[in-house]
Amino acid sequence: MALRVYNTLTSEKELFVPLIPGRVGMYVCGVTVYDYCHIGHARAGIVFDIIYRYLKYAGYDVTYVRNYTDIDDKIINRANQEGTDYRTIADRYIEAFDEDMASLGLAKPTVEPKATDHIGGIISIIEALIAKGHAYVSAGDVYYAVETFTGYLKLSGRNLEDMQAGARVEVGDKKRHPMDFALWKGSKPGEPWWHSPWGNGRPGWHIECSAMSMEFLGKTFDIHGGGKDLVFPHHENEIAQSEGANGCQFVRYWLHNGFVNINAEKMSKSLGNFFTIRDVLKTYDAETLRFFILSAHYRSPLDFSDQNLDEARSGLERINSCLAALDEIVAEQSAPRAPAPAGALAEVGLELQEKADQFLPRFTEAMDDDFNSALALGVLFETVRCTNRFIAETKEMTQASLALISRIRGLFAEAGGVLGLFSTAPAVWLEGLKAAKAGGISMAPDEIERLIVERAEARAAKNFKRGDEIRDLLLENGIQLLDSAQGTTWNVK
RNA sequence: GGCGCGUUAUCCAAGAGGCUAGGAGCCGGUCUGCAAAACCGUUAACGUCGGUUCGAAUCCGACACGCGCCUCCA
Q: Which nucleotide is nearest to A14 (CA to C1')?
């Protein structure tokens, strides 16, 4: 097993070698807690969730840190709008964030620090930067002098001259260089503040991540993640701060997830084209959303639309139907009336056995290749197809075929654990899907049942015309009839 | 203007020089009174123009289109 990851710093896939063998330190930028999270946040959360899960699955002892930015202009603005204090806003949206991530089925990070709990560490780093000549005090603020750090912009591959040519940089009179950024901001009246050697104030945005990552992961650690939009300025500034203060490499591997798009445009607050996680979860369940996100590579853009979500749901339904069938076979066997007969596997069984043998090697090969979840899902689907064929073509379950079935089921559970899928029992998931769809119909269940009985009677009397009329009537109301040997049930189309 | 990414069949999507990706759909089959559902099977593609190579979706160049970052952003 040889994990390779795409490192933004080098623009290449590299062999992943942790600093300390067997251990991984990983820091991912969380959110600024001033509003509900949207699907873009969900993607970042889910992407790094499976990276976290896969690293653990690969045997690493992972320390995963994801922060809350709980002090920031936006939080203060929101508090002012509502006539309350920043803490109330921050705590409210921390709680909402936790709820959203839990409903998405994210594993809890090892540590979830808050910026405001690390003011001491922030001040220490700023002091070190001033001492080394990387930062300067200016009228109650402290700024980072970007020209003093030779590696500045190495992550985003730009240079200062070109950046300024962009001409959208404001020249603040407090700054020596227009690209200098605030490490500490003197507080204005009415704003929250902390004591510091430079007067009362609060930290700039970027410094908290340098402080918290160093606190929990040390001066140099393995993986730092976040959305692509954080590359500049946030991560670039983190590098300048941490490497400037510590004089050693900050992060070995930089991982960045792609955006969620709406009609090929980035989903964002400023464009107003966003959907919150809680709104989407009213229509689509968490596993469907996760499956949708996993169906594309984490660095690619991902277009969010009902059609794409529906397709994801169909795909997940296919896998869950197969797993439910496996569960049923296993359950039947748990109380057998007679022991299953012996006998060798037929040809389709041998083929499935080979799929089972290849399953984990292919799955890990896909995930080892920069967490290629889309390719990994392909392995699942191929196995599903072969399994369905095996079930359809196997007339009598022998001991060998039953053993194969439970083996396949176990493999899906194992892969599901890494991908965060199938945590809901497949049969339960399928029931939930049916119930969710049933919410949108106009016909009362009693009426449906009455019509089904009438149709059954008509069909028994060979009055197929009347039977088909009833079937069409129900279909017009979105009710799909499912005839089987056990009778007729219905579903919402 | 600078830097970067992308363009794969009807749609979504993997693919880092020769090896069936996968899913949804369409179509065909099994089942059915006929259907539906389910299952099985099958189909088709590499933006344009050049170049390198025995061989290119994959490497190189140009062009076109789309997107992102350069301002808070996952």
A: B16
- ipTM comes to 0.95
The gap between A489 CA and B73 C1' (Å) is 49
Does some domain include residue A431?
no
Angstrom distance, A426 CA to B14 C1': 26
End-to-end CA distance of chain A: 44
Residue A302 CA: distances (Å) to CA of A53, A289, A305: 22, 12, 10
Measured distance CA(A17)–CA(A150) in Å, rounded: 26
The last residue of a domain, from among A424, A453, A480: A424
Q: Which domain holds residue A479?
A: 439-492
**What is the per-residue pLDDT for A73?**
94
Give the CA-to-C1' distance from A369 to B1 in angstroms. 37
Residue A296 lies in a domain: no
Q: Whose C1' is closest to the CA of A303: which nucleotide?
A: B12
Question: Could you give the 3-state DSSP secondary structure of residue A353?
Answer: helix
* Domain identity same for A69 and A144: yes
C1'-nearest nucleotide to the CA of A39: B74
CA of A367 to C1' of B27 (A): 35
Å between CA of A370 and C1' of B21: 17
The average confidence (pLDDT) of chain A is: 92
One domain for residues A330 and A223: no
Q: Among A365, A361, A385, which Cα is nearest to A373's?
A: A365
Instruction: Check which CATH number belongs to the domain holding A360 and give it.
Output: 1.20.120.640
CA to C1' distance (Å), from A178 to B2: 17
Q: Is residue A299 part of a domain?
A: no
Q: Give me the pLDDT at residue A336, please.
A: 62
pLDDT digits (tens, 9 = 90+) for A98-115: 999 999 999 999 999 999
- Covered bases, chain B (protein CB within 7 Å): 1-5, 11-16, 21-25, 32-41, 66-74
pLDDT above 70: residue A311: yes
Count of alpha carbons within 13 angstroms of residue A94, beta-carbon side:
18
Q: Does A1 or A41 have the greater pLDDT score?
A: A41
Mean pLDDT of A376-388: 96
Confidence (pLDDT) at A347: 85
Structure confidence at residue A490 (pLDDT): 85
CATH of the domain at A257: 3.40.50.620
Using C1' positions and the CA of A374, the closest nucleotide is B14
In tens, the pLDDT along A250-283 reads: 999 999 999 999 988 999 988 889 999 999 999 9
Strand partners, A357: none
Please check whether residues A261 and A321 belong to one and the same domain.
no
3-state secondary structure A442-457: CCCHHHHHHHHHHHHH
| Residue that is written with structure tokens 């507080």 in the block | A187
Residue A407 has a pLDDT of 95
